[in-house]
Amino acid sequence: MSAVIVVHGGAWAIPEELAQASVDGVKAAACEGSSVLKRGGSALDAVEAAVRSMEDNSVFNAGHGSTLNTDGEVELDAIIMDGRTLASGAVSCVKNIANPVSLARAVMEKTSHIMLADRGANLFAESIGMGTVPADSLVTEYERKEWEKHKNYVAGVMEDFNTQWAHDTVGAVAVDCTGNVACATSTGGIRNKMVGRVGDSPIIGSGGYADNFIGAVSCTGHGESILKVTLARLILSHIEQGKSVADASQMSLLYMGERVQGAGGAIVVSPSGQWAATFTTERMAWAAVENDVLWYGLDPKERLKEQLPK
Amino acid sequence: MLPVVVIHGGAGHVPRDRSDMSISGVCSAARAAYGILRGGGNSMDAVVEAVIQMENNPTFNAGCGSVLNVKGEVEMDALVMDGKTLASGAVSAVRNIANPIQLARLVMDKTTHACLTAEGASQFARAMGVPEVPLQSLITEYARMRWQKNLAHDANPVESQMGKMGTVGAVAVDREGNIACATSTGGLLNKMEGRVGDTPCIGSGSYADNNIGAVSTTGHGEAIMKVTLARLILFHMEQGQSVEAASDLGLAFMKSRVNGLGGVVTVDPQGHWAARFSSLQMAWAAAQKDTLHYGLYTGEHFTQSIDVPNPH
């Protein structure tokens, strides 16, 4: 069977000035993940590589370029999950780490735990020799300005803003040529969040879930709404009931809109290579590679195609 | 059938000399929660009160009596969820507070977030005027003894983790039909600093939805997370399974797929309830129609009038 990777760069009202860079970023990340799969790499390796590429890209709210909390600091959440064993690793509220998705993978592979938080996550990073970066190196001029602009708003107003703005979590799902599926999600969270706020991204079943018998999902959007409906697991439960990946995503996102008034997006891949990228926000930058064809889009119903070199 | 409350004091293997204390602890918590419900109180108040009582009871692995992490410190996780709105509040890896479940409820009621962790949770507690308590006040002799035993070279940490997985939790349906759940824990004995288990993770440690029911889980946290046990059981109920069958299906899947043991308390909107476990024991109690139900071993189910003082 052919391997497939799908990535997203966050579902939100992406402003025009970030549109091109977001599309370029997800295309590059999908190609990065795809080249891992082509070399015979696992789905797990592919989603990690794709997410690292977006963490390193300052246009996205993950790793470098993350949003700032009320104290003007970067606190990062990430998860990775292996659909073969249901093993997963997550970090929440970690600081000074350039690639939280790789730290999440280390939690999965080198500890008997699934999630490490805050200082404990940093102590673990230190113990395995993962280098830290100065806090300022993860902060972009753009985010510093946004923080300055919004820091005087009261929380309620910010929440209105946050449903429109800045939840550009990044994520990837993949199936490799042996039929293993995996997912990874990474984020800086929402702008001006409280210190210590943990969103949906590192929570298994909300920010992502992967099971070789069903498929893999990575979610983005309003984190608190995604948590309320455990969106990733909800989508997979519809697939278990016989729905297509596209219908399952659409139904679940509509349910989230009706039940808790939340908007978001999801990417899904099934063990047989069916995939979908769906969103109820204004925009979501996404890209997928299947059989040397790169698919991508930003606006609703947009589905562009490029042939990649064999 | 309404109101109803079901409580657990953790799945695992409770040493004989402590099993009586576990049973009387869950029965007291059930009685207190049922008192609130019978007086017309709501399910959220009831489950939070039940869990506060067990956090304050040194018998259980939550609040005072929590297990110690690898450094000999207490870090706690808790989650509440309101089945009417699906709102939830959680704290993870929080220190120096007596009742994490109350702080979780404040996260739900007073912030726009669903989870605060570690130092951020402490900052929020201070802002809310929640008193800080000294670490020592949360540590029992028993917890310290087990921690030290586990540091020994010939220790078998997995074996001793099975000895007391005593997460506590409650699910309830009030007269209005509103459903709530609450779960609180000190986590895993000799866990790494900052380890967050299933308890504060929505869908794993618990889940509540007025349209389906509620579940609170206990057992091996990492296994529970891998299968998002609470949500999984509710999916089975959405497909038409009874509270009992759905609970058993979820626990059986966890055992076969990821080799994990645990237990759950489950309710549905009509007031059907179940307390099921795949571990050797789980201390549980339920209150409904002025009757108190309780048990510890598989198949055990004692009943008595709610107004008679505790067994044992």
TrEMBL record, chain A:
Q: Which reaction does it catalyse?
A: Cleavage of a beta-linked Asp residue from the N-terminus of a polypeptide; L-asparagine + H2O = L-aspartate + NH4(+)
Q: Which family, according to the similarity comment?
A: Belongs to the Ntn-hydrolase family.
From the UniProt record, give one GO term of the biological process aspect. Answer: proteolysis
Organism, scientific name: Anabas testudineus (Climbing perch)
Task: Please provide, in alphabetical order, the Gene Ontology terms of the cellular component aspect for this entry.
Answer: cytoplasm
Using the UniProt record, name the top-level EC class of this enzyme in a single word: hydrolase
Q: Which GO molecular function annotation, any one, does this entry have? A: asparaginase activity
- Identify the PANTHER family for this entry: ISOASPARTYL PEPTIDASE_L-ASPARAGINASE (PTHR10188:SF35), L-ASPARAGINASE (PTHR10188)
Per UniProt, the keywords (alphabetical) are: Autocatalytic cleavage, Hydrolase, Protease
* UniProt protein name: Isoaspartyl peptidase/L-asparaginase
The record ties this protein, via InterPro entries, to:
ASRGL1_meta (IPR033844), Ntn_hydrolases_N (IPR029055), Peptidase_T2 (IPR000246)
Q: Which CDD domains did the record assign?
A: ASRGL1_like (cd04702)
EC number(s) on record?
3.4.19.5, 3.5.1.1
TrEMBL record, chain B:
UniProt record, GO biological process: L-asparagine catabolic process via L-aspartate; proteolysis
Q: Where is the active site?
A: T167
Q: Which residues cross the membrane?
A: none
Q: Name one Pfam family in it.
A: Asparaginase_2
Q: Which GO terms describe its molecular function?
A: asparaginase activity; beta-aspartyl-peptidase activity
Q: Which reaction does it catalyse?
A: Cleavage of a beta-linked Asp residue from the N-terminus of a polypeptide; L-asparagine + H2O = L-aspartate + NH4(+)
InterPro entries cross-referenced by the UniProt entry: ASRGL1_meta (IPR033844), Ntn_hydrolases_N (IPR029055), Peptidase_T2 (IPR000246)
**EC numbers:** 3.4.19.5, 3.5.1.1
Give the residues the record marks as binding substrate: R195, V196, G197, D198, T218, G219, H220, G221
- Going by the record, the broad EC class of this enzyme is hydrolase
Provide the alphabetized UniProt keywords: Autocatalytic cleavage, Hydrolase, Protease
Q: Which GO terms describe its cellular component?
A: cytoplasm
Q: Where does the record place the site Cleavage?
A: G166, T167
Q: Which family, according to the similarity comment?
A: Belongs to the Ntn-hydrolase family.
| Name used for this protein in its record | Isoaspartyl peptidase/L-asparaginase
Q: State the species of origin.
A: Anabas testudineus (Climbing perch)
**Gene for this protein?**
ASRGL1
